[in-house]
Amino acid sequence: MNSALLLAALLSTPSFAAPKAPDFKISRMQNAPVSQIKSLADLKGKVVFLEFWATWCPACVTGIPHVNRVIDSLKGESVVFLSVTDEPADAIETFRKTHEMKTWVGIDEEGLSLKAFHVSGRPAGFLISKDGTLLADIFPDDLEEKDIRDALAGRFTPRPVTWEDSPNRTATGSATGKTYFEAKISAASGKPGMRRSFDGLEAAAMPFAQNVAWIWDVEASQVIVDSAPVAEFNFTLKTSPEGFEKGRELLKTAVQSAFGVRVAPEKRETDALVLTLSTAKDSPRPKPGAEGGKSGLMRYGGGRLLGKVPMSMVARALWLSLDKPVVDGTGLAGEYEFDMEWKYGDRAELDRLLAARGLSLVPARRTIDFLRVSPEKP
Q: Are the CB atoms for 266 and 372 separated by under 8 Å?
């Protein structure tokens, strides 16, 4: 074979054979002509852009208008835009009242579809061909009309997908079996979002106050910034699971050193809600947590509270749902079992659920712990 024919043969040989997309099912749909998706086969014959998102993810929310515009440009085409979240259906219905979403919205509270696509960070997006081939992973903000039209015409060149939990990702020091730490602060770059992996967590281009809140383990509403040194920044934390809290402490030092700021606790009196225990005779009581089993908040915020936790964590979870400080005034020690779901924003329904457990939320003025971020004095 001469060199010209050899070159032509090489150019005509595909360099990557795209696999079939993982199968998945969505048991509940909103804003769609179907009530559920039993499998990917239900969408055969259509190009699918599958997005994983959440209302708590700023990058997901700010990217909604862009995806809406792509959808508008492809009206009448054989394509499905599917946005999947593991949040409660009521919370999503409330969110959609103030945020126009033109995608089909899938509710997967068990998170099985997220596991199928190895998703830990949001947002994440995948382009799937008419025959179920996984063509590429595409950040929703990067999705272009041309991508969809090329997929519809069968001329989209498949790209290898890098799964978030790929075992090929390595972590310095992990082979020794010893605890290791790596905390890194860098200038904002890339698309905003947070990504968990087997060896830590990465945040890209997230707002300054939001990053501080995560690193100091408080709510964003507890962070008071006198003057933000930057609008956003990236951070990376790599550590063994048992060293996660130590790594968080290193990040605190790194933030203050990198930006020349001091992050200090500050107590402020403010309107709050106190979680109290009923004193009425024969009133019900929260269910004590069973011995063994997993402790912690499994689902919380947005009209959902599930887990075996101390009452202080119940108060914090309610804070997220009510967007108002909630403090524990029950005096109860130990852990308690909770499995409550209410329509997000329906305070009356929440009060009924709490009352069934002998609890109530009482308005009061309380001194709350805040964090003040101020420039370090020279």
A: yes
As a whole-number percent, the residues of the chain with pLDDT over 90 amount to 51
Token pair 């779901």: residue: 341
Q: Is 134 helix (H, G, I), strand (E, B) or coil?
A: strand
Query: What burial class does residue 92 get, using C-beta atoms within 10 Å of its C-beta: 0-12 exposed, 13-18 middle, 19+ buried?
Result: buried
Model pTM greater than 0.85? Answer: no
Coil vs helix vs strand at 264 = strand
Residue 224 CB partners (closer than 8 Å, separation 6+) = 266, 370, 371, 372, 373
Paired with 359 in beta bridges are 277
* Cβ(95)–Cβ(170) below 8 Å: no
Contact 126, 59 (CB under 8 A): no
Report the pLDDT value the prediction gives residue 378, as an integer from 0 to 100.
Answer: 67
Single-letter residue type at 245: E
The values of phi and psi at residue 53, to 5°, are: -145, 180
**Domains of the chain, each with CATH number or no CATH:** 13-153 (3.40.30.10), 174-259 (no CATH), 268-371 (no CATH)
Integer CA distances (angstroms), 201 to 7, 138, 302, 367, in order = 44, 20, 24, 32
| CA nearest neighbour of 68 among 101, 96, 105, 30 | 101
Tell me what the pLDDT averaged over the chain comes to. 85
123 contacts 57 by C-beta, under 8 angstroms:
yes
Structure tokens at 115: 């596991």
- Tell me the per-residue pLDDT of 1-44, one tens digit each, with 9 for 90 and over: 444 444 343 334 345 578 999 999 999 999 999 999 999 999 99
Q: How much is the pLDDT for 79?
A: 98
Residue among 20, 46, 51 at smallest CA distance from 33: 46
Q: Which amino acid is at 94?
A: T
Q: How far is CA 305 from CA 135, 263, 368, in A?
A: 37, 31, 22
Question: How many other CB atoms are found less than 10 A from the CB of residue 61?
Answer: 15
Rounded distance between C-alpha atoms, residue 134 and residue 362, angstroms: 52
